[in-house]
Amino acid sequence: MEYIENRTFDEIKVGDSASLMRTLSQEDIELFAVMSGDVNPAHLDEEYAKNEMFQKVIGHGMWGGSLISTVLGTKMPGPGTVYLGQTLKFKRPVGIGDTITVTVTALEMDAEKKRIVFDCVCANQEGKPVIEGQATVLAPTEKVRRPRPELPDVFLHDRGARLRAVVDLAKRNKPVRTAVVHAVHPELLKDAVRAADNGLIDPILIGNESRVHAAAEEAEIDIDQFEFMDVEHSHAAAELAISLARNGEIEIIVQNIRAGMEAQYTQEIMSAAVREHTGIRTHRRMSHVYVMDVPAYPRPLFVTDAMINPDPGFEVKPDIAQNAIDMARILGVDRPKVALLAAINTVDRRMRTTMEASALCKMAERGQIRNAVLDGPLTYDTAVSETAAKHANLTSEVAGRADIVMCPDMESGELLAKQLKYLAGAREAGVVMGAKVPIVLANPDDTTHSHVASCALASLMVRGRDRLESR
């Protein structure tokens, strides 16, 4: 066990010193900004900083100042020290990668009051001072030796940053003609307007006229700028949207799903979409793909299928995999790693999922599933954790580094997506792939951020389809 031990006033003499060394990282700057609330762009905005005095991002001045407190509180004098005063002069900036040595030296001692004045210097790796000053402390008079506290791990994540990147990428394209189905709920209208304001979609609002306008009034938004199509009810709205897509008049469908009526609205739009002569089917089975921004995972995680195929047979699983692969590739993952999830990591003839996973891997080897590397069966932990994969003695390009996790069925997929969202703090966007046009199913528990990101994702699917097919 490590201990922190102080030096009492009587154990210190003028000229004694203590020091520590730290290297400034980007994470240090971000953590200090979170803790202090100091979001000065000189510390956090590279584009802004390069045009300022130092032409680079610099650390907060008090990051270095706080290291002086660290030496005084943990080394000399150490536990029992009371900080009374501090002067600081900031001589040079500290940039990312700079190594700072902090030294405090006893300068003056007041035996009657047990006070010590310390000379404080923070010097960079070149030996040049970046901070100078003096600190006055009330030194401890009793010996203290305590176990060094074990600090919690701190994980910094800009929640939703990966989805914002999707939105920013989609903004480069022209708005996509989009049918907003059954647009009679205020939140859906707000999200549609937000997506339109971001230049992602050019919406056609489809719904009962009186209800749509009532919803717009409740949401306090102006919808007069958008095209509107009046229908009597949600079923008719779904039918009209599918007809528009089939005729090439729109390129995205956004289906509102009201809380408590998810199954009905999903069934309405999907029933119309798969109808043989009037739907928007292609040669590919339709499936839903989530893009999850999971704080603890180093890359976007694609989860499929969580909304369309309740119990997919083996004959449709290649299409489900290929839909997710295509989405990942359009978003820049050139050769996605696909983990075929199961309860165990080995093939067992008594477990259908493991047998199918093995067969899917062979199909990928022979080019029947394209432009990805597949492995399975894999348990969820071995799919996303290199440590778990190592403990399981798995040698695999996919294990521990999956881009896509393909779930055995819709139930397990939805459970996984919801667990990532509510317990792991993930944010998600999602699109139904495999139809003539992408379909966004707007869940009632999604945030506006997720709705807009889903529209951006659908836009990228539309714009990237031709480019993908030409590769």
Low-confidence stretches: none
Strand content: 15-25%
Number of strands: 18
CATH homologous superfamily of the largest domain - what is it? Isopropylmalate Dehydrogenase
Strand arrangement, largest sheet?
15-14-16-13-12-17
Number of domains: 2
Average pLDDT confidence is: 93
CATH topology of the largest domain: Isopropylmalate Dehydrogenase
First-residue to last-residue Cα separation: 59 Å
Write down the Rg. Answer: 30 Å
What's the architecture of the largest domain in CATH terms? 3-Layer(aba) Sandwich
Question: What percentage of residues falls in helices of 4 or more residues?
Answer: 25-40%
Shape: elongated
* Number of DSSP helical runs: 15
Describe the model.
With 471 residues, this protein is of the alpha/beta class. Helix content is 35%, strand content 24%. It has helices spanning 26-36, 41-44, 46-49, 61-74, 161-170, 186-197, 209-219, 234-246, 262-274, 317-330, 352-365, 380-384, 386-391, 410-422, 448-469; strands spanning 3-5, 17-23, 82-90, 99-110, 115-123, 129-138, 145-147, 176-181, 201-207, 227-230, 252-256, 287-293, 301-304, 337-341, 373-378, 404-406, 427-433, 439-442. Strand 4 and strand 5 (115-123) form a beta hairpin. Helix 8 (234-246) runs parallel beside helix 9 (262-274) and helix 10 (317-330) packs across helix 15 (448-469). The radius of gyration is 30 Å and the shape is elongated.
